[in-house]
Amino acid sequence: MSQQQTTNCITLRGSAQIICEYLKFAINSVLFQRGLYPPETFKTEQQYGITLLMSEDPLIKSFLTNLLTQSEEWILNKKVTKLSLVIINVANKEVLECWDFNVQYEDGDVALSKEKNETVGSKELKKIQQEIREVMLQVAATISYLPLLDCRCSFDVLVHAKPHCDIPEKWAEAEPISIPNAQNVQLKTFSTSLHKMETVVSYKLAD
Amino acid sequence: MDGPITRGPLQRWAKKTTNENINPSLSASFKNVSNANLSSCNQSMQKLSISANQSCNNSVLSSSKTPTRNENKKGKKTPSKNKSPGRSTTPTPNKASKTPNKADRFIPSRSNSNYDLCHYMMSRDEEKGEEVVTQTAASEAIGRALTDTEPGRLLQYTCKAPAAPEGYQNRLRVVYSQAKVPSSVKNTTRYIPQAPDRILDAPDILDDYYLNLVDWSASNILAVALGNSVYLWNAGTGQIEQLLTLEGSETVCSVSWVQGGGTHLAVGTSTATVELWDCEKIKRLRLMDGHTGRVGSLAWNMYIVSSGARDGNIVHHDVRQREHALATINAHSQEICGLKWSPDGKYLASGGNDNLLNIWPIVQGQHYTQPQYLYSFNQHLAAVKGLAWCPWSAGILASGGGTADRTIRIWNVNTGANLNTVDTKSQEKENRKKREVRFWIHPILEKREEYGAFHTLVKNQLREDEDKFYNYFRMQKTTFDNLLQKLSQELKHQDTFMRESISPAERLAVTLRYLATGDTFTDLYYSYRIGIKTISCIVCSIVWSTHYKELISGHGYANNQLVIWKYPLMTRVAELTGHVARVLHLALSPDGTTVLSAGADETLRLWKCFMLDPSKKKEPTDSKAAKSLLNINTSMR
């Protein structure tokens, strides 16, 4: 009995790590699948039982690392409600596409949490990864309906934080973005039993 | 008119608006009041409402802006505007003229109502309504921005990720555009007809990537599933026969001929069954179940027919036995869309919507597979449908992924190695390679560096004489250098092993000379010793704006875009993309607002990129060089 508990115990930090790991792979997948950067700058990596492509560009890598380490901290402290991956046309700064990653906080396994004296979840890691895999497959499949990004693009990640959140160094407040005539598609959700992640892509509907 | 009477109808109308919804049946029954009476009533009503408005505006809203206009609007426009989109016939409270139509018997106590105030409140509501309408429109435009205004902070990391490299083109274009015959095919020496030999009509064929609706038998009969029917087309005689039609909404999801030119056809259906048909007698031999989802793929191995279905299972049916299901394998987590037995019958390859390609070894001495896969390849990035075993080399399998993948991979299932990966999206690259290889240099052109005008004249002597330089290019030396510096990145071409590329300076020189003189390409060909085709690629792709201190350049391979530059800073103002092949020509409209670009994609595109801002009517003071260039440019054809 006790052994079973230890195997299926996810702490808040572990859950935040899973979320940020998902974000890392999801963002990289989007960058690759949407053709933002040359495909030769990506390298395959096995994750969640599927092959995913990760950018090898040192600048992108460091950007994501910095972003996600900070985000993990925020998610841990329940400061973040949403992360938005924004794809921008370099030439006219127009927002072409936005991937919203909504973070919802869940209670996990209440009984187990009481026992352990900290908030923990009891969802099987395998099950979580299976759920993430399904989202990833959906991300890859989005290119069949998303419009071609026919220009030089860049991306940015905006963090929707709670009002009382402190702004760390090298961070700044951002302007809200908008996509005119946007179409939203919600992908599958997954949950670590402590965090629920909802992925939504909104894109400009072709005229 | 005296007070009480003017108030009467107004008050009734005002009251009625609140009661309108309560007794519609009642109001309907009163529609048959005499018309003459009504119209007169209407008139007085309108007048009254306007006067009431006026008094309101004067007394209460004395500070409101442009009262006359407002009032006009209120009298005529507001009612129609306030109507919900589309001219609905439902009675709206604001339609003053219509209200008497539905006069009811409700008689309120007039003594304790302040009608002026009531009316004012109502008309103010109208105003507000209008505001709300515009506001919602605005909010729709802002869209997501509004949802983001929920309490919270929007943060960004200030060290941004880099943009895509300059000149990088999204190669997904191939996915979005209809691919023509890959050029690699054209490179073969034999003749390949580009047009289909014959076209068969296939109405109602299901547009579904996951199904396998066509199979050609060894006896030259094509089985095609169209909707709920299967047709047999004899490719030799052209004879068409209908094999079967399923009932109701059932559809045929897969067809597969038995090996070796037999007449038996396996048919997978949307109701999760596999049917076996004798196509000579047009007779169904048996019906085999075992799945819970539609059967989208079938494969024969001797007397075994293996079926893959949406439930992710593979079932091996022995068509001879009463208990046909020999084994059920939980093969994939999602729909199976590809299933192929190797020619030697040793392996079964299955591809699924879970992006996996699994290889199943055969059970010793049997013709169906073990329940445990030999290899599971997860390198594909999309559903694996296309599977083909190499007919001459045992154990070599080719697999193709879906849209997101665009690769063909070659596997050796004996070793589990991925022998080769072919990137099907590299069509453009191949095209370009071909062009480079075909490059052939005329002796005249070969001597470019010795005798070409750029090398003999421009590079050395002309630069020493400022006046002559200006005369030659209509541009000062510093301007030229500045321009060159800004443009060189755009003009730079890569050297290849066949030729040295023409330097940016030389390209710019030809361009400017062309613009300054209006020389034909042929003239430039001889003086600069650059091929006409090359010149036509370089030249004609810069146009100056007559209204702004800007110039626009057209580009070829890579982005095929037009770039607008701020002059003389030479900063990018905008990039116009849209051409699918290089931009060959640019022209400015007579009024200077529109640029026409002609691309090699056989399109002419008009870009209204120099539209005049009415507030900035005054003529911009162009630099001398720019002006002179511009004059010459416009005087050219």
Structure description:
The complex is a heterodimer of chains A (207) and B (637). In chain A, 34% of the residues lie in helices and 33% in strands. Chain A has 207 residues and is α+β, with helices and mostly antiparallel strands. In chain A, the strands form three sheets. Chain A has a five-stranded antiparallel β-sheet, with helices on one face. Chain A has a two-stranded antiparallel sheet with strand order 1-6. The relative contact order of chain A is 0.22. Mean pLDDT of chain A is 85; it is low at 1-6. Helix content of chain B is 31%, strand content 24%. In chain B, the strands form seven sheets. Chain B has a four-stranded antiparallel β-sheet with strand order 2-3-4-5, with no helix packed on it. A four-stranded antiparallel β-sheet of chain B has the order 6-7-8-9, with no helix packed on it. Chain B is elongated and about 100 Å long. Chain B is of the alpha+beta class and 637 residues long. In chain B, helix 3 crosses helix 4 (67-82) and helix 14 (477-491) packs across helix 15 (504-517). Chain B contains 18 helices and 28 strands. Chains A and B meet through strand 3, helix 3, helix 5, strand 7 and strand 8 of A and strand 1, helix 7 and strand 25 of B.
Which short descriptors sum up this protein?
heterodimer; A: 207 residues; alpha+beta; Cell Cycle, Spindle Assembly Checkpoint Protein, Chain A; 5-stranded antiparallel sheet; 34% helix; B: 637 residues; Methylamine Dehydrogenase, Chain H; 3 domains; 4-stranded antiparallel sheet; 28 strands; (apollo) hypothetical protein (chain A); Mad2-like (chain A)
Instruction: Order the strands across the largest sheet of chain A as they lie in space.
Output: 7-4-5-10-9
Low-confidence runs of chain A: 1-6
The CATH superfamily of chain A turns out to be HORMA domain
> Which range best describes the helical content of chain A: under 10%, 10-25%, 25-40%, 40-55%, 55-70% or over 70%?
25-40%
Q: How many E-type strands of chain A?
A: 10
CATH topology term of chain A = Cell Cycle, Spindle Assembly Checkpoint Protein, Chain A
CATH architecture of the largest domain in chain B: 7 Propeller
Query: Low-confidence segments of chain B, ≥5 residues, pLDDT <50?
Result: 6-10, 14-102, 132-138, 140-149, 178-190, 192-196, 424-440, 494-499, 536-543, 616-637
Mean pLDDT of chain B: 63
Organism (chain B): Parnassius apollo
Protein name (chain B): (apollo) hypothetical protein
WD repeats (chain B): 329-370, 402-421, 576-608
InterPro entries (chain B): Cdc20/Fizzy (IPR033010), WD40_CDC20-Fz (IPR056150), WD40_rpt (IPR001680)
